[in-house]
């Protein structure tokens, strides 16, 4: 039987390994899910109202959320409820009791 000789190019191609860059792990941003129903939004409105009443001055949405210990999304829900009822107003980009 005749033996097949492997050429050096073919041998080199078989022995080389392809280097693969390690995968980078990307931390996923935690999703904040606000429960949207009348009861939940009403409670957030109460949190916003109480925070504004305690502060006695106009606050930014971020400050309201921080002081009320709620998320910014929940603060917006509560503020929307209060705007609809005419209980809050806009003062130079800040939210104040009406």
UniProtKB/TrEMBL annotation:
Query: What superkingdom heads the lineage?
Result: Bacteria
> Which InterPro entries does this one have?
DUF2582, WH-like_DNA-bd_sf
Name assigned to this protein:
Winged helix-turn-helix domain-containing protein
